[in-house]
């Protein structure tokens, strides 16, 4: 190759990329930072797609949990007369709906994210972990929008939060870890076994009823509470209620610790399994 000047040679030499075995693996986590703009692009694209050409737009993120809260309040609060642990029943329900809706939406969106981006995954290299993580971030936007309803409910009932609410950001990270961990497992499995697209809605529907969303976990008999906390969302929901409701609401600490440990295992296992499966995504997707 003939260079017209020394400057042209230096430009070409400075942009040369060395390709060697194991380079991608050893630089994977650095690549996640290098491709951070892809996080923003995918998240913003999904937000636009979700709300573009909709009649009610972002208010759908408000209407869905609001209607669910009304149904649960009537069934469990008015008809079944279940305890509210010292707080207005709608507030108790909505304090649980916040993390549950976040988890359910993130679980479903992350699970389908790899299939939805199949064309890009099969043609371009980038850390595949970007795709399900961006789906969880989009679900977090809905979570923030729904938080406005909780603020309005608390103002309507004249319910002031306790100082515990300062710890809520830590429990939000807890919910984020549970959502991302479960989402990574399903995202990887869905690439290999397309049956999971039918399993995910069923799991979400069942999870709504076996998790303490419409009722307080305090109604579970003491001898079964630790077993009940094998569902990691029990610890997530209880931590949200503990920080938001304050007052008489008490968290079951052994179950909370168990839920945190299981969440950490699910997240770590999800990352490991996703990374091991990542190599064949482009071939089988």
| Cα end-to-end separation | 40 Å
Percentage of helical residues?
Answer: over 70%
Q: Indicate the radius of gyration in whole angstroms.
A: 22 Å
Strand content: under 5%
> Unreliable runs, pLDDT <50, ≥5 residues?
1-17, 19-23
Please, how many helices? 14
Q: Globular, elongated, flat, extended or rod-shaped: what is the shape?
A: globular
Quote the average pLDDT: 83
Short synopsis of the structure:
With 285 residues, this protein is an all-alpha fold. The chain is 73% helix and 0% strand.
Structural commentary:
The chain is built from 14 helices and no strands. It is an all-alpha fold. It has one domain. Helix 6 runs parallel beside helix 9, helix 8 packs antiparallel against helix 9 and helix 9 packs antiparallel against helix 12 (232-245). The protein is globular, with a radius of gyration of 22 Å. 37% of the residues are buried.
